[in-house]
């Protein structure tokens, strides 16, 4: 067993045991310390670590985090909260919140939706007398499932869309994942709603209460950046296979879209400070850890010994689900795409769907879960722990994997 594999397992165990560690230790600290340990043990060189990081994805995430931060400063979270609460009926309030966050995840990535959704959850929990912990966990499930249907819904979908070279990536993702996403979302909400007023679940403490932003800021740079991001992504999808024109990467698209914020906004310095830097550090460190693991050859050795065909639907589903629990879904997809020789739509969509819904099982399984947790802590709220998350999300994980797997196999049989 390689040192890289051992360090990866230790990282997972430390995150699982985080509730018993000092509160000052955050998830990104654990991942970063793991990356540093691998560098110090020379399991990966600094040069190799640099090239193991998907900088295009990091730039895109920086861009959407900047846009999410700028949108938050405009008071958009407070405005959404007011609109949702005006509905009054509890079921419709919850349904509206879920729909808004799912659409936000599909358009701006699940990570940006997590940033915007946490303060809304705090306001809703306070006004509707709901337990904040189950509502935050519902947010995690919503942004994960909602991100399934879009090639820019989450980082792993971006990687797969780039590898797939689809004619129209939005249409392809919707065809393969929209139905299971809708069914899974409905069933998941029926399950999670049961815990909103359960006393042993709503036991949380807040050192400071979230208050709606009273900042007066320019709204147009943030709104323009969000609009440009959507326009650029749609154009890139439509013109993807048109020869003779420049095809920007997803990172370049993100940076171009957030230019109005950093060129015209009076709050550019504050927006830059409020970018979710811990999550970016988490991603950078995670790529170093998985780069070391891939370089060690441990995974390749196991695949060779087991004579495993990575293109088989059962293998794609099994490996992408369980590997995501150890290493998070983004690096798993990055590794899988490097090991995969056959990249047909069924294989890529199975990898996309299962690796995405795999994020519903553990906190570390998806970066958006980490973001929700860290954003809640940022507002002074004591969020869910590892085992609370696992208990509520286990049925969600099971049903989402099962429905996605069955639908993709059925849809592939009709192609």
Based on the model shown, name its key terms.
mainly alpha, about 0% strand, 21 helices, about 425 residues, about 70% helix
Report on this model:
Helices cover 72% and strands 0% of the residues. The protein has 415 residues and is mainly α. α4 runs parallel beside α12 (250-257) and α8 (132-146) packs antiparallel against α10. The radius of gyration is 20 Å and the shape is globular. The model is unreliable at 199-214 (pLDDT under 50).
Largest sheet: none
Mean pLDDT: 83
Shape: globular
* Binned strand content: under 5%
Give the N-terminus to C-terminus distance in angstroms: 42 Å
From the helix content, strand content and strand pairing, which structural class follows? mainly alpha
**What is the number of E strands?**
0
User: Order of helices and strands, N to C?
Assistant: HHHHHHHHHHHHHHHHHHHHH
What percent of residues adopt helix (DSSP H or I)? over 70%
What number of domains?
Answer: 1
Radius of gyration: 20 Å
Please, how many helices?
Answer: 21
> What are the low-pLDDT stretches, counting only 5+ consecutive residues below 50?
199-214
